[in-house]
Amino acid sequence: MYRSLGISDDVLKFGENIIDNLKERFEAIDEIAEYNQLKVINAMQKNKLSDVHFAATTGYGYNDLGRDTLESVYADVFNAESALVRPQLMCGTHALAIALSANLRPGDEVLSPVGKPYDTLDEVIGIRESRGSLAEFGVSYGQVDLKQDGSIDFEGIRNAIKSNTKLVTIQRSKGYAQRPTLSVEQIGQIIKLVKEVKPDTICMVDNCYGEFVEKIEPSDVGADLVVGSLIKNPGGGLAATGGYIVGKEEYVDNCAFRLSAPGLGKEVGATLGITQSLFQGLFMAPTVVAGAVKGAIFAAAVYEKLGYSVLPKSNESRHDIIQAVNFEEKEGLIEFCKGIQAAAPVDSHVVPEPWDMPGYDSQVIMAAGAFVQGSSIELSADGPIKPPYTAFFQGGLTWYHAKLGILKSLQNIVDAGIKKL
Ligand SMILES: *Cc1c(COP(=O)(O)O)cnc(C)c1O
């Protein structure tokens, strides 16, 4: 079958040898998946999930039992007081924008203690001038960078917290940056420090790509708000749209009032029949994430062996599903992405090209042959066309698909004469 999918015997053998050495890592990943699977089932049982909860609501969506139960299940999975899980949260950026604008007021400062946040938040916060940004509403922004070695600058954070620091936004995943992903434990250390200095500071975590990679989530270590996208990890590939915000009831309610309208809050919002897919996606998410983490480690090991710098390294512990490979030249990045695309179940016949994507400051190439548009829990790769020409690789609804994608990317790179095995 590999031969008929365009993988040569040499490439396959190269890959299989690497997988032989990853057996123990994979067992540890399966153990985390097992724990998280039980956590999800436990929350569904506790909330007496039933098929009545899969019914559609329309119009205002008053008394949407399924929606309310889904939010209780999310709150329990994340060990939080409350949750807002809605198709009306259009993507991760939207969920983060809602969480920020709902909980910040003119004169407040938002602080990022782990370097510049994800690119699309530049315009939300107003780091880059933009219409409707928080800056336009009189919210200022502060930032403490990670130290040269990637570690957290605790002293810098302590000094950066001012009387008007209202909210600290901590991004778990590296996103499109060259920095380590934070472990949940490290996030807990930052929160502990922030609360010591100024106890009423809201600690928010951008949890995109991190869900179910560990046994605990940021809300287990004191985060007041945890935010993410349903077309990443927690949607399990089955959620067609949506985002989630979990955390302290007061702050989550603020988000609901901002998302709908003051006075309406969580009471409105029809689900139009998609609730079952959100439950089922959450149910699948722990094993889907495990497949994606295996794919990330395999990619790291393959490209490390070929001499590229990879982040994280193949033997490092994992706190999100993203794997970065620095190709140092445009051609390697593009061939890699073309290989991922060629391995897809959907749109395998199209060829990705760099383009000017809204919200990003350089051209970006994206490979995704996904069932859900832009879904990056599905096998996907993307990279900004600027040095060091890094491919950010993530996802794979199954380990076998992730494996095929990486083999195909390797095949492309070998065929293009960029590297020899
Ligand atoms: C994907 C992502 C976002 C934005 O999510 P979208 O759904 O693409 O809008 C924000 N932060 C991080 C770390 C992400 O990975």
Instruction: Describe the largest sheet.
Output: 7 strands, mixed
Given as residue ranges, the uncertain stretches (5+ residues, pLDDT < 50) are: none
Q: How helix-rich are the residues, as a percent range?
A: 25-40%
State the end-to-end distance.
Answer: 21 Å
Overall geometric form: globular
Mean pLDDT across all residues, rounded? 97
Bound molecules: pyridoxal-5'-phosphate
Spatial strand order of the main sheet: 1-7-6-5-4-2-3
SSE pattern: HHHEHEHEHEHEEEHHEEHEEEH
Number of helices: 11
Using only C-alpha atoms, the radius of gyration works out to 21 Å
Number of strands: 12
What structural category do the secondary elements indicate?
alpha/beta
Q: Kindly estimate the percentage of residues that lie in beta strands according to DSSP.
A: 5-15%
Topology:
Elements: H1 9-20, H2 23-46, H3 65-77, E1 82-86, H4 92-103, E2 109-112, H5 120-125, E3 140-143, H6 154-160, E4 165-171, H7 184-197, E5 202-206, E6 225-229, E7 243-247, H8 249-259, H9 275-305, E8 309-311, E9 323-326, H10 330-342, E10 364-368, E11 380-384, E12 390-394, H11 399-415
Parallel strand pairs: 2-3, 2-4, 4-5, 5-6
Antiparallel strand pairs: 1-7, 6-7, 8-9, 9-12, 10-11, 11-12
The structure holds pyridoxal-5'-phosphate (PLP).
